[in-house]
Design goal:
The chain is an alpha/beta fold. It has two domains: 202 residues, 3-Layer(aba) Sandwich (Rossmann fold); 154 residues, no CATH class. It is built from 15 helices and eleven strands. The protein has a five-stranded parallel beta sheet with strand order 2-5-6-1-7, sandwiched between helices. Strand 3 and strand 4 form a beta hairpin. The chain binds adenosine-5'-diphosphate and magnesium ion. The site of magnesium ion has 3 residues, from helix 2.
Length: 381
């Protein structure tokens, strides 16, 4: 029997929880050709939501293109990947090559077919004539126009998902944002979702004086309602023949800080441990045994994270854990945890956020990784 909990990858349909409203809105906006910004910290479920939305719009007849911007090592590599993804909408490869070669006749792309071990093969696209930054910009303009052309040629709605979109700012200073915005704006038949994992960077990108200012609706993805998540977990245990003790779902969600990734991880690992022990029930003792195992496995890694921090950062991080991230600047908390003055605390908080260890949720600071939070509570002083 396979584990019903999934983490570290896009969740399949069976493990996808809630997000009904978000999904409806996203699907409606994208089929209407809107340019949607989807923002949340890492591991909240953007990519999983996008995958669901693309599935739905393609069932309604739209053509979909999905790309993770951060996985490309250069602007040109991104453009090649984008062109390849656009061409690959046509599954017959001769036609794909014909379409791309004609659509980009000025650039003369080199379109090849590469067999893959799986046997299906894939298209590769390269721009051998591109040398200077100006060439790159010209190709970019050509490629950014392609979704519109695809929609016109095929008389279908096209939906483009650019995931980890904040990585685009690394490619070149602003020119790429301008070019993409200008192209997208002209494409009435093309819906775009730009998803980003670094909220502050993304918010700046859609702020005044930036090309994407007021380009379209902004969706800030929140956590999943804890009660819904807890119920889902218990139902999945039950369905796989393991009876949960009352409150187990809520305990998992709570321990995981309700971060979707961490919730699924803890549920997955607990399920594995119970299952391999041949158990038919699961309770809080099992949860804590699994937690202890996971902490032991991560010990070396967390030790290294801890060693890299300055003393001031360690003290602040511990205080965040012990104070549940609240009132860190109050005189009382500062005295209790022997923290420095407010400005040095602020500096440590900012550094910890920058290192992706902390996250700000409203007035509260939370440790991103709930296992690290538990490790700090148990193993540091
Ligand atoms: N709607 C959901 N239902 C259940 N689990 C989810 C959901 N969204 C995300 N998760 C969990 O969180 C993990 C990270 O999700 P992902 O979509 O990759 O997040 P992001 O793209 O925001 O980093 C998934 O592997 C899964 O374990
Ligand atoms: Mg993602």
């Amino acid at each position: 029997m396979t584990n019903p909990f999934v983490y570290g990858e896009i969740v399949p349909d069976e493990a996808f929880v809630d997000r009904d409203e978000e999904l409806d809105r996203l699907v409606a906006d994208l089929t209407a050709g809107q340019k949607v910004f989807l923002i949340s910290p890492r591991r909240y479920g953007k990519s999983s939501l996008i995958r669901q939305a693309l599935g739905a719009v393609s069932r309604y007849g739209a053509l979909t293109i999905e790309l993770t911007v951060s996985s490309y090592s250069s602007y040109l590599a991104f453009l090649e990947g984008y062109a390849r993804a656009l061409a690959a909408v046509e599954t017959r490869w001769q036609r794909a090559r014909g379409w791309l070669t004609e659509a980009m006749s000025a650039t003369r792309p080199e379109v090849r077919y590469e067999p893959t071990p799986a046997g299906t093969g894939q298209i590769s696209v390269a721009f051998p004539l591109v040398r200077t930054a100006r060439d790159v910009n010209r190709v970019a303009n050509d490629i950014f126009a392609l979704p519109g052309r695809l929609a016109a040629d095929r008389k279908r709605t096209v939906v483009v998902a650019l995931d980890e979109f904040q990585a685009i700012v690394g490619f070149d200073g602003g020119g790429v944002e301008q070019a993409l915005r200008a192209a997208a704006q002209r494409q009435r038949q093309v819906g775009y979702v730009f998803a980003g994992s670094e909220p502050s960077l993304m918010e700046r990108m859609i702020g005044p004086r930036r090309p994407f200012y007021k380009a379209g609706p902004v969706m800030r993805l929140d956590k999943i309602p804890p009660g819904v998540f807890a119920e889902f977990i218990e139902a999945r245990f039950t369905k796989t023949g393991i009876r949960p003790e009352p409150g187990l779902g809520a305990a998992i969600v709570d321990l995981a800080g309700n971060l979707p990734y961490d919730v699924q991880r803890l549920a997955h690992e607990t399920w594995d441990d119970v299952r391999s022990g041949g158990g038919r029930r699961v309770g809080l003792d099992d949860l804590h045994a699994t937690l202890a195992r996971l902490l032991a496995e991560q010990d070396t890694l967390f030790e290294a994270v801890w060693q890299r921090l300055t003393l001031a950062q360690r003290a602040v991080l511990r205080a965040v854990v012990l104070q549940q991230g609240r009132e860190l600047l109050s005189a009382d908390v500062r005295a209790r945890h022997r923290l420095g003055g407010p400005s040095s605390i602020q500096a440590s908080l900012a550094a910890l956020i920058k290192q992706d260890l902390l996250l700000k949720e409203g007035p509260q600071y939370v440790v991103v990784d709930s296992l690290l939070r538990e490790w700090i509570a148990r193993k540091t002083y």
